[in-house]
Design goal:
By secondary structure, the chain is mainly alpha-helical. The protein has one domain. The chain has one helix and no strands. Keywords: Membrane, Transmembrane, Transmembrane helix.
Length: 54
């Protein structure tokens, strides 16, 4: 019985790994992240301030 459970566990593990790899491959084909493309020029000013001496 232990050998059957070991084989069954191995089959389930291989199925999960294969399914995960297929899912990741399909997501990579579409692009992993839902990115928003902003059109235009953005100027980011740095927030640099000096600490006041006490």
């Amino acid at each position: 019985m232990a050998v059957i459970n070991m084989w069954l566990g191995m089959i389930v593990l291989i199925g999960c790994i294969a399914g995960g790899l297929l899912y990741i491959a399909s997501r990579q084909k579409k692009g992993l992240h839902n990115k928003t493309r902003h059109k235009g020029i953005y100027i980011v000013t740095p927030f640099i301030y000096e600490r006041q001496e006490v």
